[in-house]
Amino acid sequence: FRDAESVIDSIQVKGYAEYLSSEVCEGRGTVQRGAVDAAWWISRQFGRFGLTPFGSTFSHSFHNAKGVCHNVMGMIPATKPSDRNSYIIVGAHYDGIGMLEGSIYPGADSNASGVAALLGIADMFRYASAMGGAMRQNIIFVAFDAKQLSMAGSENLWNRISRGMLKDPYTGRVIKPGDITMMVNLDILGGKMAPVHKGFNDYMIMLGAKDDDKILLHKCNRQGGRYLDLCFDYYGSEGFTDMFLNKVSDQKVFRDHGIYGVMFTSGITMDTNRLTDTSDKISAETLEARTKVIYRWIWGKMAGLK
After folding, report:
1. How far apart are CA 180 and CA 298, in angstroms?
2. Is 59 in contact with 53 (CB distance < 8 Å)?
3. Cis geometry, peptide bond prior to residue 156 (ω within 30 degrees of 0)
4. Staple partner for 254: which of 1, 132, 245, 261, CB 3.0–4.6 Å?
5. CA 52 remoteness from chain centre
């Protein structure tokens, strides 16, 4: 599975973030035109990677009080039919503030960087599966819309699952809540401006991890050429850790329903949700390293490693 890491590099993952935070996508404001353009662009990447859509399209619309939103979803199946009854969800929200009073809020780190990592991870799993890697669970990749509207995108996906409305595109069976073993959320992953420990600018925060999974992440971290300073709380604050894990990002919806949910982040900065959240603030090499460590960790979880 490690050979798959050669299919992405720092230029590629930063390029994803640069496109999503460019003027073309206009900050990807929820229900704004730029978010629709971003959804279709992400759909094209899923298709290019060879992911399988749920139904005839990767983009699935839903309505809320603000208008029409779009989750983008694709799947890579487990290798053996006997393993195709359980699912890991890997997600990142792509929507942002967008256009506000005539100005574009680029949202490069929040959360074009998380979507860039999502695309990189999907591409690596696609390659590993094609090369005969043993996929022991199905993996559903989701680019969520409407995180800015109280996580309406992840709520919509959960409602589809809980109501028996989401079917496996390979088997046709209904995906039930109990079939979901884990939800991995990627939210703000490109910056180096808020290191956990002074002098360690290559770092990553993981929230919600079980003890065995913290150990596994350390092992995965040591396998790469760029070692990350890992932290498992939000800058030592119990209150902020609880807030970011259980209140303000998309893993919350799944955790509320008893699904093991974790969040990977590099933390908010002085640029978050401001006009200055531009792609030049993203560290390409660090984003690449984080993406690959998360990929290894998900693979290890899927394989039952500790």
Report:
1. 14
2. no
3. no
4. 261
5. 17
Report residue 200 CA to chain centroid gap.
24
pLDDT reported for residue 286: 97
Distance CA 245, CA 182 (A): 14
**Angle, CA of 48, 52 and 56, to the nearest 5°:** 100
CB contact at 8 A, 146 and 32: no
Does 50 have pLDDT greater than 80?
Answer: yes
* pTM given for the model: 0.97
CB 207 within 8 A of CB 265: yes
Q: What pLDDT does residue 224 have?
A: 81
pLDDT for 129 equals 96
Which tokens go with 106? 């680029």
For the chain, how many helices (H) and strands (E)? 8, 11
pLDDT at 2 over 80: no
Separation between Cα atoms, residue 105 and residue 273, nearest integer Å: 7
- DSSP 8-state secondary structure symbol assigned to residue 279: G
Q: Of 133, 128, 131, 137, whose CA–CA distance to 75 is shortest?
A: 137
